[in-house]
Design brief:
By secondary structure, the protein is α+β, with helices and mostly antiparallel strands. The chain folds into 3 domains: 2-253, Immunoglobulin-like (Sandwich); 258-425, C8orf32 fold (Roll), CATH 3.10.620.30; 434-640, Sandwich (Jelly Rolls). The protein contains 11 helices and 36 strands.
Length: 641
């Protein structure tokens, strides 16, 4: 909860429209000496050229009781240096109404002349971003729009979160971090806890020690950090913010045994099926002839495709699933609810299955020696007879049974069993790597018009995303998209047709076949015809000379493109590119060229081999990518006989 609150307060989600007309109180003059000193000593745009805003103060004070009920006070002050920061004035702070209340204590804009414009109480709204899904109406936002915004103004607000129902009784954890891309002049984090509650903390890239004091039966920890600025935050393929940005987690000490038992106990009662579910399962068993393997796959496809997924991160919602009978009836659910439904259906046919909690790869590494509720996803673990698990993610609508996306490969998965738990790390799949196989069959006629049949097949993560895009796009939209794409590749290109296999049929690889033609693409130079081959796209951005942070690729991939070109009538080959190959620790690239009869075949293969590229290896990686890109853009020269 704390992590979500602070990050939202810092990054300020902008996905909700706020009316431009503000209900505000009459301006008054600033008299608060603390704020006057803070503003008078603050930075200007000269101190941070190109930066839109600077945080003058991030102050958080947490007061935690022995039962883990708590009060979290947040005081945020930032200064607008450039008009690009104006969207920061639309503030959205999330909270979970089933376990906490959120009060906006005050919110105001301090203009450059030190006049104050307050946000009135009636202009602070409470909404739910999941209004179409009543089961999740407890996920709320307090939102308000800062008035009188202009360059040089200072924006300030105070918020108080009261937790009356901790997720895990007696357990709390607070998360302190810094906003990426914006300077912070001063940040204060204070946590006040009972002395007899065993606590601990762990930090990352934060080189500051707390001041520790005692008052009666309380212990107070206080950190103060000044002048922090995380540079390079806008680089492409960044590591997770938990890795890049300094942060600290403070928590009551628990064991993984305690966490596993708690989660098992709150989840088990929710798995009780309804009579309607029992009748449904009986029908499925009969339809599948009692074949357990077929039943497993059928039920997985049912939950993943027929039950809508509501994308709420696990840590933002309640850990306890809703009753599976509600999920079955409503046909929608978040990750834990869809997982609960699948587990319940499996248990009804005698298939053992457990909850598996995950901190996905893009969220950063899980700290196993510091147990906290730091998971953002929930899936299903089915034990194999020979040991290990089949992991199933029922939130992915068009995912093949048993495939685990790269987001959950090479991370620690927390499998919760009846009287035990287990951490399992699934290595990156070698047999199923994300990528594509593309064939361009190009025939050149007497008028030098190129007739192209383009066949595309996808696998791994790429296949899942492509299936979804095609399932929810109209044929006209797909045609328009392909028309735009081919016009950037070939001169005077005209799309004839696009056909594709059924996106929902997971028994065959998804395939797209597009036919089009290009006129005036071949350049004539006397008796020579120059045919520029379509450049092969390589998904890696290396436009800068150096990096501040490592490149963090989402997963390993392999892409193969086969280009077949017919020799134009009455012509012969004047020039063909040579074979090239480059094998590095980062990846492998090969261009293979052959000519048989009147057909020229060029095969391009690009394969990534390393997921994380440290800054000191960036230039070598950049050289490899640029070599691959350069050799993927070539020309064939024909000569008229």
């Amino acid at each position: 909860m704390k992590k979500v609150l602070i990050l939202a307060a810092l990054f300020l989600c902008f996905s909700f429209n706020i009316p431009s007309a503000h209900s505000v109180e009459e301006p008054e003059q600033l008299t608060d000496q603390y704020m006057l000193d803070l503003i008078n000593n603050s930075s200007s745009q000269l101190d941070y050229p190109g930066i839109a805003a600077v945080y003058l103060l991030m102050d958080e004070k947490d007061y935690v009781n022995e039962d883990a009920t708590a009060i979290y006070d947040l005081h945020i002050v930032w200064k607008i240096l450039d008009r690009q920061a104006m969207p920061l004035g639309e503030v959205n702070i999330p909270f979970n109404a089933s376990e906490s209340t959120l009060e906006i204590v005050s919110a105001r804009t301090i203009k450059p002349d030190k006049t104050v414009v307050n946000v009135s109480k009636e202009n602070i709204r409470e909404v739910t971003p999941y209004s179409g899904f009543p089961l999740y109406s407890n996920i709320r936002l307090k939102q308000f729009s800062m008035p009188a915004m202009e360059v040089g103004c200072v924006v300030e607000y105070k918020a108080r979160l009261k937790v009356f129902k901790p997720k895990l009784p007696g357990f709390f954890f607070s998360y302190w971090s810094f906003p990426p891309g914006l300077p912070v002049e001063k940040s204060v984090f204070e946590i006040n806890v009972p002395k007899d509650v065993e606590t601990g903390y762990v930090s990352n890239n934060l080189y500051a020690e707390p001041e520790i004091t005692e008052s009666g039966d309380r212990k107070i920890y206080k950190w103060i950090v000044k002048d922090i600025f995380i540079e390079g935050i806008y680089e492409q393929f960044l590591p997770p913010y938990d890795v890049v940005c300094p942060n600290l987690t403070f928590a009551a000490k628990k064991t993984w045994d305690e966490i596993a038992k708690w989660f098992y106990d709150i989840s088990k009662p929710q798995l009780e099926p309804s009579q309607e579910m029992e009748a449904f399962v009986a029908f499925v068993v009969e339809e599948q002839g009692g074949d357990k393997e077929k039943i497993m796959k059928w039920l997985y496809d049912f939950v993943s495709q027929a039950v809508r997924y509501v994308a709420i991160p696990l840590k933002s919602s309640d850990y306890q699933p809703h009753k599976v009978s509600e999920i079955y009836t409503n046909k929608y659910g978040d990750c834990k609810d869809k997982s609960a439904l699948l587990i319940s259906l499996y248990k009804m046919v005698g298939i053992d299955a457990d909850f598996a909690l995950v901190k996905t790869r893009s969220a950063g590494p899980l700290i196993k020696d510091f147990p906290v509720l730091d998971f953002n996803h929930c899936i299903v673990a089915v034990p194999k007879k020979v040991g290990g698990y089949i992991f199933l993610d029922p939130t992915l609508e068009l995912n093949k049974f048993g495939y685990l996306t790269t987001e959950m490969q090479d991370v620690d998965i927390f499998v919760v069993k009846k009287d035990d738990y287990e951490f399992v790390k699934v290595p990156f799949a070698k047999e199923v790597i994300s990528g594509s196989l593309e064939t361009l069959d190009m025939k050149i006629d007497d008028d030098y018009v190129i007739h192209i049949t383009n066949t595309m097949e996808y696998f791994g993560d790429t296949e899942i995303g492509t299936r979804l895009n095609f399932k929810y796009s109209t044929k006209d939209a797909i045609r328009a998209f392909f028309g735009q794409v081919i016009s950037t590749i070939f001169t005077n290109a005209k799309l004839n047709d696009v056909n594709f296999s059924d996106p929902s049929n997971l028994n065959e690889r998804f395939k797209i076949v597009a036919t089009y033609e290009a006129r005036n693409h071949i350049k004539e130079a006397g008796k020579l015809l120059i045919f520029d081959l379509p450049a092969i796209s390589i998904s890696a951005l290396v436009s800068t000379e150096d990096r501040v942070h490592p490149i963090w690729l989402p997963g390993l991939s392999e892409n193969t493109t086969i280009v077949k070109v017919s020799i134009p009538p009455g012509c012969k080959i004047n020039y063909l590119p040579e074979n090239v190959e480059k094998d590095t620790p980062f990846g492998y690239y090969r261009r293979e060229v052959s000519a048989r009869g009147d057909i020229i075949t060029m095969t391009y293969t690009y394969k990534s081999k390393k997921l994380i590229i440290p800054p000191d290896q960036y230039r070598a990686y950049k050289e490899f990518v640029e070599f691959s890109a350069k050799n993927s853009k070539e020309s064939i020269v024909f000569e008229i006989k």
